[in-house]
Amino acid sequence: xxxxxxxxxILSADFARLGxxxxxxxxxxxxxxxxxxxxxxxxxxxxxxPMICKALRKYGVTADIDVHLMVKxxxxxxxxxxxxxxxxxxxxxxxxxxxxxxxxLIRSYGCKAGLVFNPATPLTYLDYVMDKLxxxxxxxxxxxFGGQSFIPATMTKLAQVRKLIDDSGYDIRLxxxxxxxxxxxxxxxxxxxxMFVAGSAIFGQDNYxxxxxxxxxxxxx
Length: 221
Ligand code: DX5
Ligand code: ZN
Description:
CATH architecture: Alpha-Beta Barrel
Distance between the termini: 15 Å
Pathway: Carbohydrate degradation
Organism: Shewanella fodinae
CATH superfamily: Aldolase class I
Order of helices and strands: EHEHEHEHEEHEHEHH
Structural class: alpha/beta
Catalytic activity: D-ribulose 5-phosphate = D-xylulose 5-phosphate
Active site: 36 (proton acceptor), 177 (proton donor)
Binding site for a divalent metal cation: 34, 36, 68, 177
Bound molecules: D-xylitol-5-phosphate, zinc ion
Number of helices: 8
Number of strands: 8
């Protein structure tokens, strides 16, 4: 398995100081910046769009930006985010009419592509698109808000997806999003995840370096 990646979600950052917050988590050892896009339509909350992603690039952020689209429809935002500097773009399969087309569109812009599954969304969407995926992300909370509790059934689903990925032979990251904390990250990794989104667990602490170090220690044992 590839090295574990820790991806702080800026949903829990101080938006008034977003550039500094991103610099701080990266300096503290984060690998990737997770960027939660909510449209008050697909999910009941409203956040930020491509302009903020572009602003972070202009500010000087060079780390990978992992854009999690919680929007419907999906396709119209893909070029905008790719041009704004997204590295990875993931979307929820039930939010687009043509899953295969949306995945191809993301890759056509040179970004990594991924599908996101809500806690109750079946994995059957994966059946014919494994060759077009760089990331599979499992939501371990219902999308829309930070600070929710990890839904335990995600553990079984993670193990199922781990097996699907391994059996496929493709190089696909297994990302988990929602309720990831210092005290459950090791168990989540054991179930098969190799990329961990954490919002409140990181931004809710004063010392970002200390919490990221404790997470990495829990991961490496
Ligand atoms: C929820 C978002 C998550 C959220 C995670 O819809 O997709 O990325 O920020 O927040 P925590 O880590 O606080 O559960
Ligand atoms: Zn997210």
